[in-house]
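Incident log, entry 3
Record: Transcription antitermination protein NusB (154 residues)
Problem: checksum mismatch between cached and fresh output.
Input:
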Amino acid sequence: MASPSKKPRSGNARSAARLAAVQALYQREMSGAAVPLLLSEFHQHRLGAEIEGDQFREADVDFFNDVVKGVDARLAEIDAMLGENLAEGWTLDRLDRPMRQIVRAGAYELVARADIPTAAIINEYVDVAHAFYEAREAKFVNGLLDSIAKKARG
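Fresh output:
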């Protein structure tokens, strides 16, 4: 996955962790790397590092670990939930890989992180989407995560 064309607006460590988690989940899908190996690589070489002239912000490592491990552990549940909320005729496989990781990570937080407000989660992943996509795709992320939030959080 190439570096995002734009950085998310927010500059905090959790925002950086979310962006890195999406990148790690993408790498996992592409390479099939085991989660512990993937986490180690990101801890040592990516979080807060300079890569190809881009300085990556310091990330909340524990939060990054939680999102990556949580998506991996609950992947079948998350994918089923996402599939149920896609428009008729659409499947999760029809989404491109970066988009799948964005909505998976957002869905994980919505179902597993009751300590984080719904609006904060959705806004953060819309920001992550803006780092890779135009406004249309970011609106898609907003709508899909909002739909999941209504079912998961009431």
